[in-house]
Amino acid sequence: MNFFQFLSKYAGTFAQGALVTVELTLCGLIIGLILGVLVSLMNLSHIWPFRWFARLYTWVVRGTPLLVQLFIVYYGLPQVGLQLTPFLSAIIALGLNSAGYVAEIIRAGIQSIDPGQMEAAESLGMRYGQAMRRIIFPQAYRRLLPPIVNEFVALLKDSSLVSTISMTELMRIGQTVSSSTFMPMQSYITAALFYLAMTSIIVFFSGKLERWLEVRG
């Protein structure tokens, strides 16, 4: 069986795995964005326990491998009575990991805005939350888009690690097909092509979005 015959026979199977990969990545990114915003605001807070917690969180998450975090969630939590499915364990681990990176991206984006903007907002009588929502965030979000997209791409590729907890996503499909057909080269090249296609689509549409935002001024 040559590669094209292999691809025509198993493309549908790999596509099903790719859909699961996309689902995992989107769920993980949504969790990461929500938690990342909260952690970044805590990091910028004037309340020191919030700052301490945010910095500790980002230090631990960014300083430990995602695979270790995934194993702690999937294998460790049952020891304290919290039994999770592979899918739920995967999106929690991906989300918590992503939040650490997203928090730093958002913090850096906010701090890149001229401090005079916040001072001007406060001089107009705005509270901190109002100034962030009306003045700082509208200026920062364009600077945040490229690194957030990079995090999306990285998270999609990192999702391949959830195959280690028997989650049937794209990488796991590649392993299963490789074992059943004894054709590892074709199996993993096909998986790589699917990953490449998905990341290319993300980069393409993010570029379109960036240009659209530039046109809007």
Could you please say which CATH topology of the domain at 21-170 applies here?
A: MetI-like fold
Query: Helix coverage percent of residues?
Result: over 70%
Label the structural class: mainly alpha
CATH class descriptor of the domain at 21-170 = Mainly Alpha
Number of strands: 0
Query: What is the approximate shape?
Result: flat
* Fraction in beta strands: under 5%
- Low-pLDDT sequence parts: none
Quaternary organisation of the protein chains: single chain
| CATH-scheme architecture of the domain at 21-170 | Orthogonal Bundle
Alpha carbon gyration radius: 21 Å
Number of helices: 8
3D architecture notes:
- The radius of gyration is 21 Å and the shape is flat.
- The chain has eight helices and no strands.
- It has 217 residues and is mostly helical.
- The protein has a domain at 21-170: MetI-like fold (Orthogonal Bundle).
- It has helices at 3-43, 48-63, 66-76, 86-111, 115-123, 128-158, 170-181, 184-216.
- Helix 1 (3-43) packs antiparallel against helix 6.
- The mean pLDDT is 92.
- It starts with a helix and ends with a helix.
- Helix content is 82%, strand content 0%.
